[in-house]
Amino acid sequence: MQKFASHLLTWFYAHRRDLEWRGVLGKPANPYHVFLSEIMLQQTTSATVHDYFIRFIEKWCDLPSLAQADLEEILYQWRGLGYYARARNLHASAREIIAHYGGRIPQTESELKKLRGIGDYTAAAIASIAFNKPAVAVDGNIRRVCARLFRVQQIQPDKDYAALLAPFMPDDADANNSPYPATINGDMVQAMMELGSLICTPKKPKCKQCPLNFTCKGQDIAETLPMMKPKIIPKKQYCVGFWVQNRHGHILLHKRASKGLLGGMTGFPLSAFHDISDGDINVDAIKLACDAMQTLPITISNQQMMPIKPISHIFTHIKLTAFVSAGYCDTANANLPPDYYWQPYDKITDMPLPKLMLKIYKAVIETK
Question: b or e along 330-348 (b: 16 or more beta carbons within 10 Å of the residue's beta carbon)?
Answer without folding.
Answer: eeeeeeeeeebebeeeeeb
